[in-house]
Amino acid sequence: MSKSRFVFDKFAKLIEQGLINYKDVSDEVITILKSKRDEIVFKMKLASKEEVDVLNKRMSNLEKKLEEKQKRKKTSKVKK
Question: How far, in Å, CA of 43 to CA of 50, rounded?
């Protein structure tokens, strides 16, 4: 029984170390890919995320205003 316990403990330790190493490697790969992406975006002189968010917000506001104007226009035609 103690021998099987020893084997299970060793096996569990190997799996744990493998998962930790895998996680470290995957984190490192993700970090490298993010830096490459940022490098490409910088070279292409694309807009930053903050700028895109601001533009999206402006577009949604304009779309709402346009819908309101269209609704008002339809209701004014019906009243005539």
Answer: 18
